[in-house]
Write a structure and sequence with these properties.
Length: 372
């Protein structure tokens, strides 16, 4: 949408991984070197972990694109919450084998025969498992068993496991000792620092054909780093929204305030800072003015464990959370006031009906229905 406005040839901050925009920070170069080292070992497991959006998939896709397909047969598997047998069938399917309705024993024999046939043709087999944190302990054990396949003195399969930090925690458990002994290298991709964040943004703009626009001021780079925590995907989200905002407002120069504004918008959208009506609550015509307020999910947890939530908030988030709670309390106060007024009216009307010498007359049914 905004590429022509800034004179760009491509969208620079798309969220989907694109090896063409790969930025080789120190952390990413180290992870790529580990994968390259693993390719030369011809055996065992390489484990690469990192936060969501840290750039793990981009590194893997770049490695796969550069493989010599005449020498390496690579299967890329994105894991989900499946049991061991299901994972084994997915591995077989990733290598092009028929696994639907096939027993585990037959899948294992077919896999071994396939791996041996590739080896005799001079090809190595590589299995890349993405989102490895979704693997169960039994599924990891099945992968370890596959690493036992050998042809002579050569391992038939090598595996790269790519996952989020919780996968590292899983591997530290005592029952994973045998698997850890098969891991020949492991690394973790940490977030970018402030300097790398600026270089990352400038690199992506250059790859997108920038010749000077948009212009991002030094303080704005610092604001982007603070808003994103140095996570590449978060940087992309903030910068993409920043450029869209500039396009809509005819701006090509951005300062820290502009970054803070779009970061605040993203935070509002992701944290759900609005009160939503509950089905079945009071109608819009009621004296309270509609539905009762409902706190956002994060605010509900704050009520349950406020100390833990307050410790995780920065100053800006803390102030915003206080403003939301203040709006909630004010609306509750208005509701209570309107309710008390309504009750007082009912009491006054009841007193008026019961005064005098004659006993109160019942209200006809059809009249009561009309009033309601």
């Amino acid at each position: 949408m905004y590429t022509a406005f800034y004179g760009l040839t491509h969208k620079p901050f798309q969220l989907n991984p694109d090896p063409a925009f790969y930025y080789g920070s120190k952390q990413h170069r180290r992870a790529a070197a580990y994968l390259d080292y693993g390719m030369h070992q011809h055996e065992g497991f390489i484990v690469v972990t990192g936060e969501v959006g840290a750039g793990k998939t981009t590194i893997v896709r770049g490695m796969l694109d550069n493989l010599d397909q005449d020498k390496v047969f690579a299967a890329h598997l994105v894991s989900t919450q499946l049991d061991a047998e299901d994972t084994l069938q997915l591995v077989g399917a990733a290598f092009g084998l028929r696994t639907r309705g096939v027993s585990k024993a037959d899948v294992l024999m077919s896999l071994e025969a396939f791996l041996i046939s590739m080896t005799t043709k001079g090809k190595r087999c590589l299995l890349v498992v993405d989102e490895a944190q979704n693997l169960t302990a039994r599924a990891v054990e099945e992968l370890r068993m596959l690493s036992n396949f050998q042809f002579g003195n050569h391992a038939l399969l090598q595996s790269f496991l790519i996952g989020q930090p919780e996968f590292r925690q899983m591997l530290q458990s005592p029952h994973m000792m045998q698997f850890r002994q098969r891991v020949i290298a492991a690394c973790h991709i940490a977030p970018l620092d402030a300097e790398d964040t600026r270089s990352y943004i400038e690199h992506r703009l250059k790859c997108a054909g920038s010749t000077g626009l948009p212009h991002i001021q030094p303080a704005a780079f610092d604001a982007i780093f603070k808003a994103s925590g140095g996570i590449p995907r978060r940087i992309n989200a903030v910068c993409d929204r920043l450029l869209l905002s500039g396009f809509l407002n005819g701006k090509t120069d951005f300062d820290a305030q502009a970054v803070e504004e779009v970061a605040h918008e993203i935070q509002e959208e992701t944290m759900g800072a609005t009160f939503t009506p509950e089905p079945g609550n009071l109608s819009a015509d009621s004296p309270t003015g509609g539905a009762l307020p409902r706190l956002a999910p994060g605010e509900e947890s704050a009520m349950e464990n406020p100390a833990a939530v307050l410790a995780s908030l920065n100053v800006q988030q803390f102030g915003e959370r206080l403003r939301r709670l203040e709006r909630s309390l004010l609306q509750i106060e208005r509701i209570n006031t309107a309710t008390l007024n309504l009750l007082q009216q009912l009491v006054d009307n009841g007193s008026h009906l019961t005064t005098g010498n004659e006993p109160p007359q019942p209200i006809p049914l059809h009249s009561a229905k009309k009033k309601t």
